[in-house]
Amino acid sequence: MNAPSAPRTSARSEAWPSLAVDDWTRTRETLHMWLQIVGKVRMARAPMLNHWWQVPFYVSARGLTTSSMPHGDDVFDMEFDLVAEVLRIRSSRGGTREVRLEPKPVAVFYRQVMDALADLDLGVSIMATPVEVEHAIPFERDHEHAAYDPEHARLFWRQLRAADRVMNEFRSRFYGKSSPVHFFWGAMDLACTRFSGRAAPQHPGGAPNCADWVMVEGYSHELYSCGFWPGGSAEGSFYAYAYPEPDGFATHPVRPQVAAYSAGMGEYLLPYDAARSAADPDEAVLEFLQTTYEAAADNAGWDREALEAHPHRHVLPF
Q1: Degrees (nearest 5) of the Cα angle 62, 151, 18?
Q2: Residue 255: pLDDT above 90?
Q3: Is 206 left (phi over 0), alpha (psi -120 to 50) or beta?
Q4: Among 10, 127, 154, 269, which residue's Cβ finds the most Cβ atoms within 10 Å?
Q5: Residue 20: exposure state from Cβ atoms within 10 A (0-12, 13-18, ≥19)
């Protein structure tokens, strides 16, 4: 007689996995520094775009990727393959190198990445100090961050996959200027930003270990931004804010009811665990994104008729 099979994990927990922020602090801090190293390579090679759109990663079928970057007449890319547990570097000339994602100090990872790039004739010079963190240890001297649990990293990637899917649906509803859904390695968040088309007052800066002019470029125009990051609540949070924040934004009715405005952070938060526990997690997140966008657009007087996509755009001729 065959032994009873193990119960299947529900489709919802597969699509919206649970990962307590406190359970993977040490892995997250190490991965954050590794992401910054590779992100700085992308920043050094990619041409400058408005709002720093040339520097983020994108959620891929295996983890997080830079997409292609120029190197002379050639291109290369770098991907954190969180399934195979390697950082994979690929050159258009055919060469490939891999750096294992395993417990090791940031200093060791940094040297391995720089050596792998040099082996492929892709040598690059970066500012080898992290940004947007209070405790900024130069990469080559960072032996403090060395923990890495690959399962925790994969669970985070699965959270990002869910957020990326829903945020891209939300992005499709906007006709005006909008960023891609992309992962910023400075603050370690997945973000998407909509713009009204109007200039914004100069941003005051203030991000830790980050020049004020960096923030000025990022916030040069009036915007609504939303995203997901591993903070703000037990399992991470969806967030939404406006710059400049219009009067009435913080008190505008938003949904789901569990979402709330944080005066200390200056943004709305929807706990990830509340979203994944909802009857329809995708719809709960879309509702949060839509109503917080309305809080920004309505109170700031955006031309919503001109900026928002109309239903006929989604009627395909096949």
Answers
A1: 95
A2: yes
A3: left
A4: 269
A5: middle
Q: What integer is the mean pLDDT of 187-212?
A: 96
Is the whole-model pTM more than 0.85? yes
Return the amino acid letter for 315: V
Q: What is the DSSP string of 109-166?
A: HHHHHHHHHHHTT-------S--S-SS---GGG--S-----HHHHHHHHHHHHHHHHH
CB 201, CB 244: distance < 8 Å: yes
Which tokens go with 122? 């892709």
Tokens standing for residue 312: 């006929």
Summary count for the chain: helices (H), strands (E): 8, 12
Residue written as token pair 């239903």: 311
Q: What is the mean pLDDT of residues 181-195?
A: 98
Please give the C-alpha separations between residue 76 and each of 88, 91, 291, in angstroms, as whole numbers: 10, 4, 40
Q: Which of 195, 165, 224 is nearest to 16 (CA)?
A: 165
Q: What is the DSSP letter of 52?
A: G
Token duo for residue 250: 């913080």
